[in-house]
Amino acid sequence: MRPALISAALVVVSLLAGLAATEAYLRATGTRPLAEIYPQGICPTIWCGGGFREYAEETGWYTAEGVWPKESEQRPMTILSQGRRAIEGKIGRAAGAPGIVILGGSISQGIGVRDSEHYGAVLQQVLPNADVTVLATEGYGTSQVLGTLDRMARLNPAAQEKVVVYGFIGHHLERNVGTFGWNKPLSDLLGMIVDLPHAELDNGNLIQVPLRTNAFFSTGLMGELAISAVLKDWWMRRTMTPRADDSEEVTQRLLLRLDEAVRRRGSKLVVAMLDDYLFDPQLGMVRTPALAERMMAYMRDNGIDFVDMRLDWRRTQLGLILHNGGHPNERTHLIWGHELGGALVERHLGGLPAAGLTVRNANFGAACADYTPPNDLPNLYHWGNATGYVAQQCAGRGRCDLFVDVGPGALSDPVNSCAKDIQVEYFCGPVGTARRLKSNGDSFRKTYELSCPPG
To answer: From residue 14, how far is each of 5, 22, 354, 425 by CA, in Å?
Structure first.
């Protein structure tokens, strides 16, 4: 018996010595006990008021009312009551104006661009006789978009919009299942386990999970140890990493549930496919076109309307991204706003009165998209690269002589040593049928007529 007790005591002493050594090493390398982080501004809902976010039962949070300088370029973002993004120059809703509500995350909210530049504001300019409302919120995925519909019904049950636009990005797949990589940054910031709103499969059933927190590793004796931070991460990895395997199925079923919820409101859902980026731990954000194609095939098969507006906006050379690299810039939003406006007119808002030309998209050098320039020069063509230029010349006019030029204040040359065509898709009125202009060969320094019949 005595040798056994001695052996047990030696094991305990060895474990304690190992823990002490580990604790000393972690502290020496800068690992802080969670108790040093956890007490700072924590309240049961995480969002304690007075800051950038307010708590919402259905979604976990929404952006607080105020003017928020976000991103390194410090372009102010005005948020109105209940998290609505301001649209510069918008007046009150006209009687009978069809309502368009935009939902989604920070890209659809327009973080990093001005109140006149986000694609919701561009859409309002393209469709001046519609009423656009932007209720997108940074950090949201599809599950929280569903929650936003519930919050809309609670706050204004009599309101009804004609179209609900959901701005979908590839990263929503991670948010929709609450992966370890998605939850870790906020968990580290607050010094406890944070499980953001997401959805899970439970015996084949889709369950939407609200915001959850766990301070087990952050309080008491455990919280005073540096090893608490290591154990927190271990537990999160163990419970959250496997969720990624279900991300595609969960997202598809959330989209179906969202479409059903919008139909119950008497509205029509349109999913705007903005990009197909997913996060790779080694490579960062990478494009996954095959995944996007599967998602669109699922929506097509299940009668969910969508518009493919994907842009490689993170490719720095194209000039579509903010300088800090986190969000798309105003050029990207302008392309999206015009394309979305054209799609909505064509499918859901036919006959909506407006004056003159409405530009849906314009492309300079589409015929050179697959061309390889000499001397290792890059091919910088992207869809919509001439939309802003053509809209500036022609939008709202009954007739327009479009002069195709390259240089300051005009178009940039996307592909060296290739004869570049010009293609324009536009509406008159707008009405439900698009008109198209396509040049025959090189369009440089040539003039083309875009016109709408009188009346």
So the answer is: 14, 12, 80, 75
